[in-house]
Amino acid sequence: MLLRDLDDATIESFRTMMSNRTPGHPWNKVTRDEFLRLIGAADCGSDGELRPTIAGVLMFGRGYSIVRELPRYLLDYLEYAGGGEEWEARRTIDTGNWTGNLFEFFTYVDNRLALGSPNRFELEGMARVDDSGLLKAEREAMLNGIVHADYNGSGGVRVELRRDRLTVRNPGTFRIPVGLVESDGHSDPRNSNVMRMFMLVGLAERAGSGVHRMVTTYRELGLGEPEISESVDPSTVTVSMRTSAPNPAGPVAGKGTYPHCPGRDGGEVRRHPGGAGGDDGAVH
Questions:
Q1: pLDDT (mean) for 59-74
Q2: Taking the model in full, what pTM does it have?
Q3: What is the pLDDT of residues 167-203, one digit of tens each?
Q4: Quick check: 218 and 182 in contact, CB under 8 A?
């Protein structure tokens, strides 16, 4: 695979976001190819040519080039109206009318979450919660799915938004026990280069703090705790989060809603292989 297989518009959008966030960063002034090398999106192949890494293909590739390297790669966003099962908005790589890479998918879904927030919390009999804190927690859930996904696994990354719940599913499992993932400072992202790229534009903070911050935010908003579960066949992590509070009285006290975490409502996490994978190394 060659650097020309990457999408120039996505790269430029990423560079603009990084430049706006850190105007004085020295990488803002380097050439496109050198920039890609510095952020881990490109590396020298065995032939001495600069080629995209797996992380670079995932973040900036076009759908056909991504699927050529990762045939089971899939991204799917569904937005449901009311309480029914008919979606009113969808974005998936199968349509062919957008690039299909991780960066464009994330920014699209993030904008949908922000634009939809004024209406989906005004539910009868439910208290409206602080959009900004909730949006940050939702962003963490989406980033968690993206950076921990095994893109060789089945099912792809799937984000479902309903009026009262956000669900994010990704193939593969956590590479450390779920109880440690919740703790601040513990993380082992499968796609560490992708994580670092999101950090460069301010969409992710230090690895390991995302899930902990998400859980803390939910407690502060009175939404209890997100439900985090792992399944074996196929290997999947699911994060399900309320987007409205049934009780305006304040934070929920007592035990959380992790049905399989040690010390939380009983049960022990069943560990199983999370799948191979990683996002470094040049793609040939």
A1: 94
A2: 0.78
A3: 999 998 775 555 545 555 556 678 999 999 999 998 8
A4: no
Helix axes 102-120, 8-21, angle to 10 degrees: 60
Phi, psi of 178 (to 5 degrees): -55, -40
Preceding peptide of 234 cis, ω within 30°: yes
Task: Tell me, yes or no, whether 271 lies in a domain.
Answer: no
Cβ contacts of 213 within 8 Å, gap of 6 or more: 136, 137, 140, 184, 205
| Bridge partners of residue 91, in order along the sequence | 77
Q: Let me know if residue 48 belongs to a domain.
A: no
Identify each DSSP E strand in the chain by its residue range.
Answer: 42-44, 50-52, 75-80, 87-92, 157-162, 165-171, 227-231, 236-242
Q: What is the DSSP letter of 176?
A: S
Residue with tokens 């909730």: 134
* DSSP calls for 144-165: HHHHH--TTSSS-EEEEEETTE
pLDDT in tens, 3-12: 999 999 999 9
The CATH code of the domain that includes 94 is: 3.30.565.60
Determine, yes or no, domain membership for 250: no
Q: Find, among 76, 66, 70, 69, the residue nearest to 101 by Cα.
A: 66
Structural domains in the chain (count): 1
> What residue numbers bound the domain in which 219 lies?
73-242
